[in-house]
Amino acid sequence: MESIEFTNRLQKLLEYYDLSASSFASKIGVQRSSISHVLSGRNKPSLDFVMKLLHTFDDVSIEWLVDGKGTFPKSNTTPTPIKTNNILNDNSKIELKENDLAAPLAHLEKNTTKNSSGKEIEKIILL
Predict the structure, then answer these.
(1) Residue 10 belongs to what domain range?
(2) Could you report the per-residue pLDDT of 75-105, keeping only the tens digit for each?
(3) 1 Cβ contact list (under 8 Å, min separation 6)
(4) Which residue has the higher pLDDT, 80 or 74?
(5) Are residues 13 and 20 in contact, defined by beta-carbon separation less than 8 angstroms?
(6) Pair 52, 29: CB distance under 8 Å
(7) Are 16 and 74 in contact (CB under 8 A)?
(8) Is residue 94 part of a domain?
(9) pLDDT higher than 80, residue 125
(10) Which CATH number goes with the domain that contains 26?
């Protein structure tokens, strides 16, 4: 795989999905420095890097990414949503009322007053 050609294809992918190098790194689950090194030509992409990219972006074929053969995107449709591990993929907001957590936690107040060392628990903080 020619490093310069791979870099050009990777840049095309970033432009197509309108992603910065940093957001791209987050999407595929690699360090930002990995993207920077690949884009600058300092490092060649690892197999792990290529596989994470292919698993995240359905419109990218391995033949196109590695050898430049075939087309990108695979289909001539609009970009497919990027797979993420997030539950919310949009800007949805969830509003919780004070009592929403009270009922599920009520048993903690009654059943959990001391920890294993015998010290009393003062408060429980949920993040």
Answers:
(1) 3-67
(2) 765 555 555 555 444 555 555 555 555 555 5
(3) 44, 45, 66, 67
(4) 74
(5) no
(6) yes
(7) no
(8) no
(9) no
(10) 1.10.260.40
